Amino acid sequence: MKTLKDEGVDTIFGYPGGAVLDIYDALAQTDINHILVRHEQAAVHAADGFARAKGTVGVCLVTSGPGATNTVTGIASAYCDSIPIVILTGQVPSPLIGNDAFQEVDIVGITRPCTKHNYLVADTKNIAQTVKEAFYIARSGRPGPVLVDLPKDIINKTITYKAPSENIHIKSYKPTYDPNSKQLKKVISLLKKAKRPMIFAGGGIILSKASEDLTRLARDLQIPVTTSLMGLGAFPGNDPLWLGMIGMHGTYRANMSSANCDLMIAIGVRFDDRVTGKTDAFAKQADIVHIDIDPTSIRKNINVQVPVVGDCKKTLEKLNEMLEQESFENLEKKRKPWLEQINDWRESQKMAYEQTDIIKPQYVLEMLHELTNGDAIVTTEVGQNQMWAAQFYHLNRPNRFITSGGLGCMGFGLPAAIGAQVACPNDLVIDIAGDGSIQMNIQELATAVQFKLPVKVLILNNEYLGMVRQWQELFYEKKYVWTNMTCAPDFVKLAEAYGATGLRATHPDEVKSVLEKAIHTPGPVVMDFRIAQEECVYPMVPAGAPITEMLLV
Amino acid sequence: MTSEKHIISLLVDNEPGVLSRISGLFSGRGFNIESLCVAETLEQGVSRITLVTSGDDMVLEQIKKQLNKLINVIKVIDYTDKPSINREMLLIKVSAKASYRAEILRIVDIFRCKTVDVGPEHYTIEVTGNDDKINALLNLLRPMGIKEIARTGTIALMRESI
Question: For the domain bounded by A2-155, which CATH number is listed?
Fold first, then answer.
C-alpha cells in the first residue's frame, strides 16, 4: 500500500475476493479511492480509460482464479494500445500453487503474451521493489500493462516495510529516448527535397504528450497530417492541414495523400493492417521516415528508408530545434500544388450521408459535436459506432478519444468512460455505443450510479451487430447470419432499473433535444437512438485491398 | 529473399518463466526454432540460451528486436557472418551386427568419435562437431541402421581476434 501511495496512486479499480482480503483490509486504512466495478474485465478497461484521460498509470486489483482470468481481455486491449496499467492479482498461498487449489490459475502464464511484463512475487520482502518496478516498466519506454501476482501468504505476513531502491535500474531494460542526430539530419534533407510530404501520426504522440511539437512541425513546414485511430486528437481537427483519419474507414483525401505523397513522416505508429491495407501498395511513391520508441515497430510491416528510434516528444523537439537552423525558401509556393490537390480530393469526396426521416447515426454525432464544441471526452465501443465516432466527432485535443484500437474489444466503452470520468470529474464523458457492444458490459451502469459518475451513454441502436452486418451485406450477399439483435432490452427501462436516466429518440427532430437533455441531466444517462438499420460506414476499403480502392457513399 | 540459418546466443536472467517467454515469443509470432540449448553461465543469475532459427532478413531483424524487447533478455548476439565456433554433441546408437562392427569402428576412428557403450547388437557413439561433420557421419552410419539418436542442439562462442 505504501508503495502504491509512493507511486502517486489515488484510485484503484477493483473487485474483492478471498485471495485479496488482506489487501482490501489494508486498503481501507488508506485514503486511496476504490471504485467497485461489477466485472473484473471492466476494472481493467476502467483503469485503461483512467490512464488515457489522465496520462498516468491506471491500477486495478482483483482476486485469484476467475477474478484474474476475467482481466485477460482488458489486459490484451491495453497491451495492443500500449496503455500503462498495473494489474494486481491475488493468488492462492504459495504452498498450494501447482496443486489445482480452489480459485487457482496460472495467471502469469496466461498473461505472458499480452503483458509488457509480469511477476509472481515469491517473497514478502520483494513486494515493494516488485511493485515499484512494475510501475516503472508500465510507464517507461513504450508503455503497457504489467501484472503482479501476489500469493495470499506473502501478503498477510506482518512485515516491516522495506523501501524499494530509489531509482529503478534494470540492466536488461533500457528504452532509447534520445534520437540519433545523424538520422534526424537525413530526415531534414528529405524534408528539404520533398514536394508532397505528409505526416502520419499515431498513439505514440498522445502517449509521449507530443501533440504541440507535432503541430508545430506541421504548421512550420506546411505538412498535412493524418492519424491512425489511436492518434485522433493528436493534431487539431479544425486545422486546415488536417486530413482526417487514414485507413480502412479513413477519409478519401487521407488515403489518396498516402498513395501520392513523396515523403511520409510516420510518428508513433505501427502500420497496422487496418491502416495500410495491402502493404505492397502502401505509400509506394514515398520515402518513409519512421519515428518510434519501440524498435520492433520499425520494419515489422512496412519497409522504411529512415528509421529513428526514440521517444516521439524528444525526437520532435530535437527535430524542431534543428529545423530552426534551416531555411526553407518559397515554402508556400512549393507546397501550393500539393495542398491544392488535397483540397480537390476534399471537395470531391466529403464525408456525407443522406438525410431521411429516419435518424442517421452520422447526424447524431454531428449534432453531439456541435452541442459540445468537440470538447467532450469520447469513449467508444467497437464496430460501426466506433468508426462513425472517429469520422464525425472531430477532436482538437489529445487524451479525449478513448477507444480499443488494436484489440477492437466490444464492451470497452462504458467502463472506459467510467475510468475517464473518475480521472476528469469536471469533464463531459460520453460513451458512443452500439446496441450490441453496450450489452457486453452494461452491468457497469451500476458502478456509474453508485459512484455518482455522470457518464452519458449514447447508443446508436440499429438492432444489428452493425459492422459485421455491413460485411455480410457487402461481401456475403446480404446473408445476415446471426447479426440480428432484435431481442434486446428496453434500454430506457433498463437505465431506470439501474437508477440512471433513460432517454429515447426515434425521429431526427428529437435528436437535438435528447442530446441537450442528456448533457444537462445530472448523473448517468442512457440515450437510445433508433437509427437507420442498414446504414453502412463509408468510405470503406475491403480488407487486404490497397487503401486507394475505396467504396464510397 | 532467401531464408538463412542463424545461430543466436542470448544472455538472460536465470528466473522461472524466462524460457517460456522466449519459446512463447517464437510460437506466438510464427518464428521457427530448430534447436535450443540452455545452461547457466559463470555469472550468477545469468543463463545462456543458444538457439538456431531461420528466416529472411526482415524476419531475422524482428526476431532479434523482439527478443531484445523481453525484459529478462540481457543481450542478443547473432553469430551469423561473425567468426565463431559452433559445436553440437550427439549420442548415436547404431546397430552393430558382426559384419558391420569393424566398419563402424573405422568410421568412429576417422571422425574422432568415441565409442561409449558396446553390446552384442549395438554400439553407442559420442560425437562432437559442427553441422557438416555430424551430417556426414549420420549419412555414413545410416545404411548400417541407426537405432536412436539424442542431440544437444548447437552451442556457439565468438572467436577472439589474435
Answer: 3.40.50.970
